[in-house]
Design a protein that fits this description.
The chain is of the alpha+beta class. The relative contact order is 0.13.
Length: 303
């Protein structure tokens, strides 16, 4: 249950207050403070408040059952500590939130920007807190430090930090920018068309990763790489770096048949129709950077 009078994290930016993480007493002090606000995470989903408009369900520290892994997310605009209480995904749901459970894929697009950011950070950190309790080098128990943002192995002394794997995601246009190349990914059973993405490999620059991935998945050589923006995405623990690029020869485009089942060039009229749910082409949801890349290209020209 929400504490009476507790203000939600929604619509109030969370200052990460990273300098406070060096204080070893911070987690206990924040958990004992009735003003602290807690986002409860169960695997990749968070507690949702009741109502037609999606909002996070915020509770007090005393409302969280035993068994959570705790992390300090920062401070609200009012100066209150904002915490995540993370529970294993295979354990029973720790609470019964009034609006059920939802993850970034479900509600991030409907939340206020500050609250969507809080949700993504809470899920990202929460999944690391529950999934990395032991040292990957020696198997020893890794105890939490830095208010939940680091672990130190009790056996070998190695320090470990939350994973954040860079991935590139690219909107490919033809030389005239009149058409956009999208592919149907095998992971979605070919039911959705989207931009092309792939992880950056060790020792690889973003530019090299883009040229390699787009050549592998879509068969095209590129020019005019243009950075568009980024998005943290906790599936599994990615930082999506968005670009737009131009296909040198549009006729070279072909699906690899493994990751990308089919691909095709779309006009702006076709993309507009798909966004309006006219026809059978499905596009990424509004919570994703893929949606933003496609929408940006669509709105730069005439339909």
């Amino acid at each position: 249950m929400n504490r009476p009078g507790a203000a939600p994290v929604a619509r109030a930016a969370v200052d990460r207050a990273a300098a406070e993480r060096d204080d070893p007493e911070l987690p206990d002090r924040a958990r004992s403070d009735a003003r602290s606000r807690v986002i409860v995470v169960h695997g990749a989903v968070a507690a949702r408040a009741a109502g037609d408009s999606p909002r996070l369900h915020v509770v007090g520290p005393g409302d969280v059952p035993d068994g959570a892994e705790w992390g300090f997310l920062g401070r609200s605009a009012e100066g209150d500590a904002v915490l995540v209480a993370a529970f294993d995904p295979d354990a029973a749901a720790p609470i019964d939130p009034p609006g059920g459970w939802a993850g970034p894929r479900d509600i991030a697009a409907e939340l206020e920007p500050d609250e969507a950011d809080t949700l993504i950070v809470a899920v990202s950190l929460g999944r690391w807190l529950t999934g990395h309790r032991f040292c990957p080098a020696c198997g020893g128990r890794a105890i939490l430090r830095q208010a939940g943002w680091a672990r130190r192995c009790e056996a070998c002394g190695r320090e470990h930090f939350p994973r954040n794997d860079p991935a590139v995601i690219v909107a490919i246009t033809d030389p005239d920018r009149r058409r956009l190349l999208l592919g149907a990914n095998a992971a979605w059973g070919g039911r959705m068309h989207s931009t092309f993405a792939g992880f950056v490999e060790a020792g690889e620059s973003l530019e090299t990763a883009i040229h390699r991935e787009m050549r592998e998945e879509a068969g095209v050589r590129l020019s005019s790489l243009r950075y568009q923006g980024s998005q943290p995405w906790p599936y599994p623990h990615s930082l999506m770096l968005g670009f737009e690029a131009t296909a040198i020869d549009p006729d070279d485009a072909h699906a690899d048949g493994t990751e990308i089942l089919t691909l095709r060039w779309f006009t702006r009229a076709e993309i507009a129709a798909a966004f309006d749910r006219r026809g059978d082409v499905r596009l990424p949801g509004r919570a994703s950077i893929a949606h933003r890349l496609i929408r940006t290209w669509l709105e730069e020209g005439d339909v």
